[in-house]
Amino acid sequence: MPRAKKSNKESNARDILTGKRYSKSNALVNAKGKTSLLGQKLFAVGIQQAERDEKTGRLVSTLYGTDLRAIFGNKSGSFYDQIRELVEPIKGKPSFMDWRVVYTDDASQSIEAINVITDCKFENGVLTIKYNDSIADQIYELKSNYTVYSLEETIPLKSLYSFRIYEILKSEYDLQSHRTKRMGMSVDPNKAFVLEMDLTDLKLRLGIIDPTTNKDILKAIKQTNPDYDYIEELSKDQKENLKYIKYSNFKRLALDRAKKELAEKTLLSFDYDEIKNGRGGKVVGIRFYIKFHKKDYVEDTKKVLTEEDKDNALEEIMEIIDEKLKLREYKSIAEAAGYDVDLVRKQYAAIQNKSTDIRNLVGYLIEAVREDYEEPSVKRAKSNNSFNQFKQNSYDFEELEKQLLDN
Questions:
Q1: Angle between helices 8-17 and 65-72 (to 10 degrees)
Q2: Those residues with Cβ within 8 angstroms of residue 235's Cβ, 6 or more apart along the chain or in another chain
Q3: How far is CA 391 from the centre of its chain?
Q4: CA distances (Å), 279 to each of 197, 228, 276, 283, in order?
Q5: pLDDT (tens digit, 9 = 90+) per residue, 206-228?
Q6: The whole model's pTM is what?
Q7: Least confident of 89-93, 132-136, 141-145, 355-359
Q8: Alpha carbon distance 79, 117 (integer Å)
Q9: Which residues pair with 375 in a beta bridge?
């Protein structure tokens, strides 16, 4: 399904986010816990900006309010108030620092329940986030067992459940794609990968059921084979889950909404079947059919390039793009273009001929060659504000494939 036409606000936000990526360990992707949509988005942007403090060694993100407005495409006066409400503890209302998750530590295989954020403040228009050291290991300088996400795809999502379902399904898609290629087979873009999930387990991952507020639920989750019927019974009075006890509400407000939004706004799409049990046909699980529409798949029907072919194409591309870029950035552009020199030449020439301004040259070119833009869609900004200084995440697709291991 083609993407829906974007509003000017959505278009501007997407232009700014082009090429920006963040990574999460698969353990964290599949963690159980509850926070708001704004919390998830700030966490994603924060990961992209996170750096180690030289003095303390702590992982810290510093985000400027003006940049966040641009990222979220939000110019209303209430936006800062929304951040303050999330950050500052208010009686009877959970804050960012109250966000806890339950996940399985890959190293010890033990189930951990920890706070994600240890310190957080919004002062003078600057949001500072300090992460729990255990969480830092799940989001920073990851070497294996992780998934890479595009802020351009996740930030525009309007539903918390769309956001989380996207993260869960893309992680599974990448995992199964990697396994398929590792067996020497090519990935068929017309064939869906299948993921089956218990309905209660899915609710836990979406935050509909919060395991961190009930010690009995937490204890039940830590069992080798959790009793999901028992967990559902324990959670039936939780405020969020009350709305979704009736499956038809969950189907309409979570699954169907996510299906529609992901198809319209991302490259990932899914269908699903209901897994039923018993004479009454109670829905006990969901079977997802996941597709990810990447232009990279075109390479399966083209001539297989040798390493020498790629090296020669890369040299030509480096001559075409008259910019002070790093080798890995040239390589990322080349890979996104399938080492099609003419395609890179076309898109780079379009920039020069139109005298357009681009906020992030590398990110823009990667998207331009992937989508084969007919006209440059953004102007290259000359300002040096802090968001324009965001670290450019290079992404070597072959290396990512090597590093992506089993959950």
A1: 120
A2: 203, 209, 210, 214, 217, 241
A3: 17
A4: 21, 19, 9, 11
A5: 999 999 889 999 999 988 899 99
A6: 0.71
A7: 355-359
A8: 21
A9: none
